[in-house]
């Protein structure tokens, strides 16, 4: 199950890349800017601003699940089934109602990836698997990475690493670069903000480092969670001293994905303002440099 294939990306690994976004994640990060990626099944997204008054096409496609009241369209999401969601996939002419999530075979995905093989060859680019969490679909990930290497394509995976090691290990030999999140080293803070286990992530990071894999650490900077000097020191120390990485990317918190929660009819539980703390960003980069790391601020 994927929810997007983005071609000509230059921010998800070296060179020009095709990024394949897989649905499904084992974390519930409050600040997630791709909430449509969390569930491993297709989901309805509804933008009332695009809905045509008087149109009944979605009601006709799912009469037991959608009704139009004087206040607007009402979707009874608790009643939805996979069959109903699929029936609504192409019914809306304005795309007010869309379905996020599409089953694709590895061959279908690779057909898209191969369109830009000349660009990869010229720029040193390739394929990046992202999400969600790609390793929630370990068999598909392994197949895509093997197929890419067979075609001489550089491979990268963007991952939170919150999965069992057995999901990762079979694909190790076909992954050229890990772009791995290191959100926090404190287990209580990690659990509170992500519903996950920091130990699982730290253990997987350590295993990757021991395996000698190329690893870039990515740190989302979230107000109230880890956007403070104490947390950043601990995170950077772990990256430098325990993992021995050379590159760390800091990703200041933004709210560009906030509207997606409304489209999914989900609450937004993260801060409602972007991170605006130049002094903290300067500290993060300076401290990383003092630890011998190459630090990058990414928008």
From TrEMBL:
Gene Ontology MF terms in the entry: 4 iron, 4 sulfur cluster binding; metal ion binding; oxidoreductase activity
Required cofactor(s): [4Fe-4S] cluster
Domain annotation 4Fe-4S ferredoxin-type: ranges: 42-72
Keyword Membrane in record: no
Superkingdom per UniProt: Bacteria
InterPro entries (alphabetical): 4Fe4S_Fe-S-bd, Aldolase_TIM, BssD/PflA/YjjW, Organic_radical-activating, Organic_radical_activase, Radical_activat_CS, rSAM, rSAM_sf
Domain Radical SAM core, residue spans: 11-290
Signal peptide: none
Keywords from the UniProt entry: 4Fe-4S, Iron, Iron-sulfur, Metal-binding, Oxidoreductase, S-adenosyl-L-methionine
Gene3D superfamilies with a match to the protein in the record: Aldolase class I (3.20.20.70)
PANTHER family: PYRUVATE FORMATE-LYASE 3-ACTIVATING ENZYME-RELATED, PYRUVATE FORMATE-LYASE-ACTIVATING ENZYME
UniProt family annotation: Belongs to the organic radical-activating enzymes family.
Listed name of the protein: Glycyl-radical enzyme activating protein
């Amino acid at each position: 199950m994927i929810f997007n294939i983005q071609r000509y990306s230059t921010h998800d690994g070296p060179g020009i890349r095709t990024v394949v976004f897989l649905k499904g994640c084992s974390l519930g990060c409050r600040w997630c800017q791709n909430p449509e990626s969390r569930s491993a099944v297709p989901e309805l997204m509804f933008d009332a601003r695009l809905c045509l008054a008087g149109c009944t096409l979605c009601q006709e496609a799912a009469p037991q699940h959608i009704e139009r009241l004087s206040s607007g369209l009402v979707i009874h999401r608790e009643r939805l089934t996979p069959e109903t969601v699929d029936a609504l996939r192409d019914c809306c002419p304005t795309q007010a109602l869309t379905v996020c999530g599409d089953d694709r075979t590895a061959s279908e995905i690779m057909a898209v990836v191969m369109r830009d093989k000349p660009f990869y060859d010229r720029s040193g680019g390739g394929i990046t698997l992202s999400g969600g969490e790609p390793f929630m679909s370990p068999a598909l990930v392994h197949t895509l990475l093997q197929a890419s290497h067979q075609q001489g394509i550089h491979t990268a995976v963007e991952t939170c690493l919150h999965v069992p090691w057995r999901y990762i290990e079979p694909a190790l030999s076909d992954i050229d670069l890990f772009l791995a999140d290191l959100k926090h080293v404190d287990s209580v803070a990690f659990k509170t903000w992500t519903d996950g286990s920091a130990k699982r992530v730290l253990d997987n990071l350590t295993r990757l480092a021991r395996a000698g894999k190329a690893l870039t650490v990515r740190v989302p900077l979230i107000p109230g969670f880890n956007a403070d000097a104490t947390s950043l020191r601990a995170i950077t120390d772990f990256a430098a001293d325990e993992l021995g990485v050379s590159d760390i990317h800091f990703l200041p918190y933004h709210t560009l994905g906030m509207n997606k929660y409304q489209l999914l009819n989900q609450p937004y539980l993260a801060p409602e303002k972007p991170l605006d703390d130049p002094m903290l960003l300067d500290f993060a980069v300076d401290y990383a440099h003092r630890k011998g790391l190459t630090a990058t601020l990414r928008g």
